[in-house]
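Appendix B, record 7
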Amino acid sequence: MLLFILTKFYFRRLQFLVRDWSYPYEAEYGSEGGKKILDRRLQVSDLQHLELQNLRKHINSCFAHIDAFLLPHPGLKVATDPNFDGQLKDIEPLFVKQLKDFIPMLLSPENALPRKISGAEVKCKDLSRYMRAYVDIFKGDEMPEPKSMLEATSEANNLASLSEAKDLYTNMMEGVCGGDKPFINEHILETEHLRIHDAALGE
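Structure tokens (predicted):
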């Protein structure tokens, strides 16, 4: 079974896509079956190791919506033929049918929600930091640990906060001593620097 973790680029939803789902009698293909399996997998129990409990709680707290979708196997032609070139006629009809449900759901406008961190929406310029962090994690041959993904998100968030604070400091100082401003003495400049420095750190 192949498991892909798709974190949509606006990061408010975590979408698990499970391909080659082999147990449709246990949970049917699509989002309903995915929800059934996801609820079971993310359930917190006292019987679990404390680290596993905390990981599940942390995943639930990081995303506004967490969903899963179960896909069947796309067929032997797709999986084993080196000459497969993506033609729909070579893909199992059931797989294509499920894709026709999944893709519109994934790209629907109501799912295009901006990512919020600490109540503030992430700006476009910061998205590249998150994308680079995730690309670096998926460069290897092995599927990354969930902990690695959370650490990458945290690191990108810290870099975005640093960039925001630096931009605020630069813009405010430009207002005090920019090229079009009159000369100010060293004491006033130091006072303004400290005031703006504190404001940037509090951002």
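Remarks on this record: The chain has two domains: 2-113, 165-201. The longest strand covers residues 13-19.
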